Structures
1.
Amino acid sequence: MIFGLCTSLAAATMRNLAEVEAAGMLRFALTLIPLVILTIGVSTLADSRHCDLLLAGILLGAGIGAAIAIVQFVVPFDWGQVLQIPPLHTDDTSGTGSRGGFARIRGATDHPIELGVICGAAVPLGLHFVRFAPTQRLRAVAAVLMTLLVLSIPMAVSRSGILVVMLALAVYAAVLDGRQRLTALVLAIAGMAIFRAAVPGLLGTVVSTFTGASTDDSITGRTEDYAVINELWTQQPLLGYGLGTFRPETYFFLDNQYLMSLVEGGLTLLATTIVFFVLGVASARGAARRAASPAEASRGQAVAASLVAIAASGLFFDLFSFAQVTVVTFVLAGVAGGVWRHGVRHGMPLPSPAQRFAAARSGERPAPGSGTAALVPQPAGEVTMAHSSPRTIGGQHGHPHEDRHLQRQGRTPAHDADQRGRTRPG
């Protein structure tokens, strides 16, 4: 990501910039580059406890923003004006419009889309803490925060928010069993019925944003931009026009982060942006697969679900133009690296790519959790699992603390097992 940002900055210095373009370049450089460094720091320094604290902070912040949005829905007010401190001033972003007679609330964010994306991406984190927070009180707090998140999403009357939460829940469901998925589905249906009775017409308005998408000005405006973007990109295909230089004051609003990256940084920035999200999701998913406990699996999958949802939202709006969701994205990417590192050190080992490739070609299956990834043939209609674990002693699984105790005495599990075999009567 650093490489793509630096090449895009270099492209900006190769042409004369208007004042608004230079200001945009400086703003994005001072925002994104430090956030990338933050991501690297979190991924390399944060341990399991720090990762949990960062995820809890994201959930708490999103929950507070959702609470503000719900209050706005009942009693409309501008949160930016409430926090205005003389002589500072806030940009006027209150004109977010309405749909179906409902004002589009934005809570403490800059836009209803940003509100919907943050709240939708935070829902898997809420589910994780509801299930695995260390105390009953914290699980209750997580349940309250998750309820606020779910309630605020339809109040923003945003297609992006609905799609994000649906995608996030679908990805997180990979760590749930059949009964838990059925329970979640029943609760979702009951919740929608209660919500429809409490706020008549709102769910119908949200549904109409999808059914009437073909005639929606916001959709047709996005598709009309594609021809212009293609023309701009072909003129600077590799490095683009420069980071932060595609300003709506000079050009137009571009509601697609990947097209924005393509124009501002060419194929280089677009590729590094995609790789950034792919590595983040793969790291979190790898942590879930290596997890030594259901709580660790849930945490890794929740981070993966949030990152997948945010990455998908980049197709609907210019993601990195909004401060709050940008910070959340980079922090989540750092946490993904942190939980992956924790899984590699303390979790179950996984077969290497070479072993998985060899197993796929031979019709065999690498045993999960195996230190040597023994390959076990799979006869038709039979599932056989075997593994050679460094913790196996005489056919029984030892405990890592026992292993360390033996090593301090100058002995090893293998040595003790050998001694037992020699002294066994016979």
Note: The two ends are 65 Å apart (CA to CA).
2.
Amino acid sequence: MNKINVLQDIITTKDGRKFTKLVGGFGEGCPILTDKQVGELLGYKKGARMVREQLDRNRDKFEENVDFIDLIQRVSDSDTLNKLGYSPQSIKQAKNVYIFSQAGFLKYLKIATSEESFKRYEDFIEDYFKTKVELKVVENTLREELEKLENDKVFIYGKAVLCKNETDSIDLLRKLEDINSRITEITATLSKEDLEARYNELVTNYNKLVDDEDCFDIGEFSKVLDIKGFGRNKLYEYLRDTEVFMRDKNVPYSKYSNYFKMVFSGRYKGVATYKPLLKGKGIPFLLKRLRRDGILEDIDTKKIKEIENNLRNMKKEKAN
């Protein structure tokens, strides 16, 4: 198990509660949450004990060392647990002390909260697990590599100058060229734009962890409809014009939010971006509106089911 570190970063929830960011355990720089933090976040009266009971009842849904680690089994001294905020008495009484990875925490939220409750924690999840820590890890890793390359460059150059064998000297100079090429590449990557692009790659798995089994891409929905001249962009335009979505962005108004799910899609120029997915119950809602507005011909239950099945099949093919 990797060493657990307490960072200086403090994440504040919407209601003003503060949580210190922890990393390690599952891998260097991996953000983690303790069962104590999870209990506090969810407002459990029994705190960490309630989290442990929930996890123990649902162990078949979690994978040990991937979703959670039991620190009682893995940590031989109490110093680490004290550092994480556990009192000597609570350590002595506990059969288990769990830490969660991002995947494990999301799985826990799914069994412990409703979909409406889950939405309350989306900003916290983004801030705690993604926005700052992973960018920092990417940047620090690159800077460490750059420092090593600069040291190697000086050493190899000096060796090449002193080398009396012409063949060996040429080989050393070729290595020097490779090092210079990598230094140039890293220097470019460390620019803000490239770091954000790298960060966006890191968050592509985020939405896979969030349970969107019954949610569908709106572009795929327009393909299944197969209405001539009414593709993805036209569908978005229609949703804005009919005031299902806000006029200046593809975000549903609150009275229609039950039919859509906004998911985090990355960052652009330092700003978090989101995209709407169509929920399963949003399919008949949209089809009826399209029928009402004369865009779609008569629609029945059988046709709705056929569209749902086509969307699920497209989703499975895309996943594979």
Note: Confidence is low (pLDDT under 50) at residues 202-212.
